[in-house]
Design goal:
This protein has about 400 residues and is of the alpha/beta class. The longest helix has 25 residues. The radius of gyration is 21 Å and the shape is globular. Bound molecules: adenosine monophosphate (AMP). The site of adenosine monophosphate (AMP) has 12 residues, from α10 and α12.
Length: about 400
């Protein structure tokens, strides 16, 4: 089966076309600045075919251009759009309504719409993507895969905040987590690499990128995760502050009169590594500045290290026993120095990594040293493949 995976943002549309026989990516690319000046790229196995400015007035046009590229006589990878067996969509917020991936129906669409209140930045563009796909590929089944469903197994003591129940009951204030498709993929892949049944294993998965989260996976299911009602909770991130004393918000408001929405915006887009380093939210820039002796860059990086160590330590304590730790996403896959510094501190738990094996980037590799009680892996995440696999399973069962 050929499956198209689509990830729609407010002004972007990322796509990947999979041949599910061998999980090969036939083509992929990105349409960006939709509704603005428009830019699109298209890559096949042979490399980048084009990367150019094109008029992209809306997501419908972008979707049509993706299909045109995939079926182009000269550089297309399929001869007709009818070869696409299904479309899988990434949806960030499945909230309290979705426990698993679903075939798209009117009811499912209405559910995603209802959840726009708790996923205001991501769910509306995802709906636009679903509707654009339906228009361009009428009759092709669609599946939605939610970033939050993996975290639905959290027990109540992890899922809810210690505030009066009415806020959860009336307004659905609870911890939903994020990056669930990535945590699920790397934890399942880790069990596969260990040759073990996920049900027997406790794994701590560290998705460290622009947005970062750490998950305690107990017996193949999410037990606890660092992100909460929104992706602001948890670790210090590129531009997000992570967990802070909640009264910081009211205190800033009282002192400055800054509206709450602006404070939230500041904590989401102007905080984290960017704010502390006053240089950049990109870990590479901070590491470089730290090496050049910049003190604020040093503090920013130490804050990141501290938050990663704290969550791994906390989850080890919650799980009571850890079989493996996995690093993934931009920082997790590429930053050998961060992995080494974090793991060095976990020696007391029996973590020992092989520094030579760790000295690599973006590869799937076990970095456990001899004598270590806990195994450590770098596993490049592949959310798109996970979405394609769920899509295939649901469509084949239709
Ligand atoms: P992601 O959100 O998963 O795409 O991750 C993006 C982040 O990964 C960037 O902002 C960088 O901070 C980080 N990153 C990518 N490559 C490297 C690298 N070689 N060393 C350190 N950090 C990196």
């Amino acid at each position: 089966m050929i499956i198209l995976v689509v990830n729609t943002g407010s002004s972007s549309l990322k796509y990947q076309l999979f041949d599910m026989d061998d999980h090969k990516v036939l083509a992929k690319g990105l349409c960006e600045r939709i509704g603005q000046d428009g830019h699109m790229n298209y890559k096949t196995e042979a490399g980048t075919v084009f990367d150019k400015d094109v008029a992209l007035p809306d997501h419908g046009v972008a979707m049509q251009l993706v299909i045109d590229a995939l079926t182009d006589k000269e550089y297309g990878v399929i001869s007709d759009m009818s070869e696409i067996g299904a479309v899988g969509h990434r949806i960030v917020q499945g909230g309290y309504l979705f426990d698993k991936s679903e075939i798209i129906t009117d009811e499912v669409e209405a559910g995603i719409e209802e959840l726009c209140v708790i996923g205001p930045l991501h769910n509306p563009p995802a709906l636009v993507g679903i509707r654009a796909c339906k228009k361009v590929l009428p009759g092709t089944p669609g599946v939605v895969v939610f970033d939050t469903t993996f975290h639905r197994t959290m027990p109540d003591e992890c899922k809810y905040y210690a505030i009066p129940w009415e806020y959860a009951e009336k307004y659905h204030v609870q911890r939903y987590g994020a990056h669930g498709t990535s945590h699920r993929y790397v934890s399942e892949r880790c069990a596969e690499l260990m040759g073990r049944d996920p049900a027997e294993l406790n794994i701590i998965t560290c998705h460290l990128g622009n947005g970062s989260s750490i998950t305690a996976v107990k017996g193949g299911k999410c037990y606890d995760t660092s992100m909460g009602l929104t992706p602001l909770e948890g670790l210090v991130m590129g531009t997000r502050c992570g967990s802070i004393d909640p009264t910081v918000v009211s205190f800033i408001y009282e002192q400055t009169g800054m509206p709450v929405k602006e404070i939230t915006d500041m904590m989401t887009k102007k905080a984290g590594l960017l704010a502390v380093s006053e240089i950049s939210g990109d870990c590479r820039d901070i590491t470089k500045a730290e090496a050049e002796g910049n003190y604020k860059a040093h503090v920013a990086r130490e804050m990141l290290l501290r938050s990663v160590k704290r969550f791994i330590g906390a989850y080890a304590a919650e799980l009571g026993h850890v079989d493996a730790i996995v690093f993934t996403a931009g920082i997790g896959e590429n930053d050998a120095d961060l992995r080494e510094k974090v793991c060095d501190n976990l020696g007391f738990m029996g973590v020992k990594i092989d520094k030579e094996k760790n000295n690599c980037r973006g590869q799937e590799v076990e970095i456990t040293a001899e004598g270590s009680e806990i195994r450590t892996f770098i596993i490049p995440t592949n959310e798109e493949l996970m979405i394609a696999m769920d899509t295939q399973a649901l469509v084949e069962a239709m």
